[in-house]
Amino acid sequence: MKFFKLLWIVFFLIALFAKQYGSDPLFFELPIQIHESLEQNQVGELMEDGFIEPLSVELISDSKGPIYYQSTIRTTVCDDEVCEIMNIKLFWDLVGEYVGYDTVAQHPLTKFDHEPFTKNDYERLHELLKNEGSILKFKQKSELIDKEKVKASDVVDGTTGATSLEIKEEVVEGALYSSYTLWHLAHNGQIKNMLTANSRRVLDEHLIQYLLDSDRSGYTLFAFQNFQEKDYTKYKRYWLRSLKDDIPLTRKYIIKNIPTEMWRAHIIQEEVCLLFNFYDVNTKTYLLNKIEKTEDISSKSLEYISFYLTEMNRNQISQFLDILSKSEKLTVLTRDNISRAANNKEFNFSYLINERHWVN
Amino acid sequence: MIYRIFTFLLFSNFFLQFSFSQRVLIEAESFDDPGGWVVDPQFVEQMGSPYLMAHGMGTPVANAHTKFKLDESGEYNIWVRSKNWAPGDWEAPGRFQVAINGQTLPETLGTTPGWSWEYAGKVNLSAGGTEIDLIDLTGFNGRCDAIFFSTDIEAPPRGNSELSTWRMKESNEASSPEEVLEFDLVVVGGGIAGCASAIAAAEQGLKVALIHDRPVLGGNASSEIRVHTLGIHGHFERILRMLDTEHYPNGSPESYQDEIKRHKNVEKYENIHLFTNWRAYDANTNGNRIESVDARHTSEGKRIRFKAPRFVDSTGDGWIGFWAGADFMYGRESVDTYGEAYEEWGELWSPEEADDFVMGSSVLWRTINNDVPVKFAAVPWAEEVAQDHEATEGTWKWELSRLDLHQIDDAEEIRDHMLKAIYGSFANAKKTQDGENLKFEWISYLVGKRESRRLMGDHIFTFNDVTDQRKFEDSVVMETREVDVHYQQNLKDESKPDFLSEAIFYKTPKYYIPYRSLYSKNIENLFMAGRNFSCYHIGLGGPRVMRTTGQMGAAVGIAAVICEKYGIDPRKVYTDHLDEYMALIEAQKTYNTIAPKK
After folding, report:
1. How would CATH label the architecture of B179-334+450-589?
2. What DSSP letter does each residue of B43-104 carry, written as one string?
3. By CA distance, what is B347's nearest residue in A?
């Protein structure tokens, strides 16, 4: 067992050493092959309290266009009294989401008493940095340790024993302040804004297509957020696909932003309503809200939704029945679906239909 | 002993039978002995009444029992108002039975979706003492609102408006309360804000009524909900230290200690008249003024009309303002309405278009490791919500907000959804290697709300007041806590359970809230303190925590003193007596005696 552990450490050190000669980063979540021919362009610099030099961010592009951002960072990691220098390279995607990190040649990460990070420490750090909801978000630096338990130590991060239990579970053991500093860099709002502003600046048809073809939810949402009205026609199959498969936040954005003129077309209403059963609970309600405000909703759209009456929750059923009661032209199938639901003994909310004395 | 037993004779089928029908309505919350059932008055405005609930955390609770006198012998049909709170393709979780004079009726109740009268059976009863038992079969939150005996076969009405009229008729209830009490200030809601308001006013000699619908004070900080208090004390450290909590983990039983402290401190004021277990149900107005508030005892049903020149709405949901016709807000304002953007968080922070996706409500819970293995019943009705999520405790992240759910109108559904999440996640944890000995220590059955109605004042507090570091001449509340707005995790990742939230923090130096956000703009004698103060959705993100709302309460209590001194309404404190008011606020740091009883 010890032998395998030793073997692994040797491999890991070799990997770290090899990195100096252009190998892949330690952690990188994007499906991109990094090679020397990639183009680097500085995007901007950021200076904040605690930085020892401005943080410079670069946009990395291949022959087709932008693919990610990176920054080689030299920053201080401080507790109340002691500061140390940390060197690291961080990667973000095109919408400013953290996607990985790498060590800088000659500067492996260290922790308590300068002990180097183990493989597990490196992995744990990546997991921590990926966690947008980390507890570190809510903490001031002064809250990281239990002052009553502090042990004397002359190096930063040497207060592991005093780390609050709730924090201890989420940081690299023995590297509390490094974890804290890096998380707040990886999820720095100003950096994110700088990156998204730059992506917006370089956005062209090719990049929109690249974003829409991606399976990253942040990319598709960013593309839709930067659509012009004509794009809803041009990329119809993409936003319809996103309505079916994407995250609720994106679905809501699309439904809200379908151009008014386009939404007036019954065929568009019907294509959106046809997907009703693929939607999450919030999107369903959002669509029902939109239909409620739509003056001329096609009867076929209501029919499509009526097939899923028994899949709705209590308030959605009431809302949908309100919509139907205001519609003057319900299809035969819609009426059948309501009638079937009202008489369905397995349907928990049939009483909501029956209470209204629905006349078929 | 007080029974809420209402009998009256109904002359029915006069021309055919010349007979009378015998009818008796018994409200479950008024049972002599609730046994292991708890009185739940949270949803009166939605379903019509407090009810008894078998909150046994999976273990059937002891019978609830009562006795009443039946005037006439006869064959009685019995209906029980109940609800299957988790309908689906499984046995209802909250099943129970009714026994009359020791004879258990065969019907299993709590099985019909939605609140309705379930037919329990027919029994021959003799005139005289009659006993009822509610027999819990599951320990999983069966609920009983009322029991109706009738020699007629006609079931009581189901719909809320019809039912309300029917109930009043059956109980022969007069339109207004029998008892009328008068005070200098009526504070409705005994959370931290309400308690602070009562203390601040009482210390200056006002005769205060503090009305609260639970047996214990503290609201979200009480031992019933167990959220620790956050924020700073501002000008009111002395008062708020009497009421706040230590920074223990949310859900901790340490909340009991702080609750004892809180009660001791409130009860020492002779001129605070404490009405615990009283729930306000109406505000009576004359023009734009509230003349009185009506409240009902949550189990005994007695009613009192509370008269006062001024009122404080610290109900959290803004009920007093709502009943009085105060202007109010609900939901998230659009980002452009007041320029409240937080660029990197976009829609999750503030939407492009106004919507009702407010911060959600939490239900906290805890487990312990038992010495020996503990069995836990299967909970198929919880699986749809919990899915494969495993957990052994609930944190603040256990929160539910959904576009189709209103935090007030649908509060019972929100609570029940969270119960499914808890039972299901716990059941998953029980299946793991370490889960064998786990058992529930505590599950709250009260909804811990973050956001609901916000009453409009002369000033509406916004995010811009925070970002611009605005200082007001009437700054009475201050805070350094982050603006902290929540969103549901599944909005960004649909695979996440729908009952977990995430927070967005906007870190900020100290900011201030003006007095003008603490009284209604259109109801002349109404103050508000607590989460229902005058603010926009993002404005609420920071000061919604309980030390901050406590500051609001204290500030309002002191304003009420100025109002009483000059016989004026809250607005005049700002326009005509601001210097005196602010001086009195400043003096709170050192004021250390309790004023004599008025």
Report:
1. 3-Layer(bba) Sandwich (3.50)
2. THHHHSS-EEEEE-TTSPPPPEEEEEEESS-EEEEEEEEE-BSS-SSS--SS-EEEEETTEE
3. A249
* Chain A touched by B90 (CB under 8 Å): no
Q: Please tell me the distance from the alpha carbon of residue A172 to that of residue B397, in angstroms, as a whole number.
A: 23
| Contact of A138 with A118, CB cutoff 8 Å | no
Sketch the domain layout of chain A as residue ranges: 25-190, 265-354
Distances (CA, A) of B452 to B120, B226, B519, B533, B555: 38, 19, 17, 10, 22
Pairwise CB contact (< 8 Å): B404 & A316 = yes
**Chain A CB contacts of B410 below 8 Å:** 315
Q: For residues B347 and A248, what is the distance between their CA atoms, to the nearest angstrom?
A: 12
Which strand (E) or helix (H) includes residue A71?
strand A66-78
The shortest C-alpha distance from B414 to chain A (Å) reads 12
Q: Which residues of A touch B401 (CB under 8 A)?
A: none
DSSP bridge partners of B209: B186, B273
Mutate to test the interface with A, among B344, B345, B385, B413 (most CBs of A within 10 A): B344
Residues 93-132 of A with CB under 8 A from B: 96, 132
Q: Does A253 sit within 8 Å of B405, measured CB to CB? A: no
Q: Is B579 on the interface with A (CB under 8 A)?
A: no
Q: Between chains, do B403 and A280 touch, taking CB under 8 Å as contact? A: no
Residue type, A343: N
Q: Which residues pair with A113 in a beta bridge?
A: none
The alpha-carbon gap from A40 to the nearest alpha carbon of chain B, in Å, equals 24
Q: How far is B403 from chain A (nearest CA, A)?
A: 5
Establish if B353 touches chain A: CB-CB under 8 angstroms. Answer: yes
Q: How is chain B split into domains, by residue range? A: 5-165, 179-334+450-589, 361-443
Give the containing element (helix H, strand E) for B259. Answer: helix B255-267
* ipTM, interface predicted TM-score of the complex: 0.90
Q: What is the pLDDT along chain B (598 residues), one digit of tens a residue?
A: 344 444 433 333 333 334 568 999 999 999 999 999 999 999 999 999 999 999 999 999 999 999 999 999 999 999 999 999 999 999 999 999 999 999 999 999 999 999 999 999 999 999 999 999 999 999 999 999 999 999 999 999 988 889 999 998 888 888 899 899 999 999 999 999 999 999 999 999 999 999 999 999 999 999 999 999 999 999 999 999 999 999 999 999 999 999 999 999 999 999 999 999 999 999 999 999 999 999 999 999 999 999 999 999 999 999 999 999 999 999 999 999 888 899 889 999 999 999 999 999 999 999 999 999 999 999 999 999 999 999 999 999 999 999 999 999 999 999 999 999 999 999 999 999 899 999 999 999 999 999 999 999 999 999 999 999 999 999 999 999 999 999 999 999 999 999 999 999 999 999 999 999 999 999 999 999 999 999 999 999 999 999 999 999 999 999 999 999 999 999 999 999 999 999 999 998 776 554 444 4
**Chain A, chain B: beta-carbon pairs less than 8 Å apart:** 74
CATH number of B5-165: 2.60.120.260
User: How many CA atoms within 13 Å lie on the side-chain side of A193?
Assistant: 10
- Given CB atoms, is A253 within the 8 Å cutoff of chain B? yes
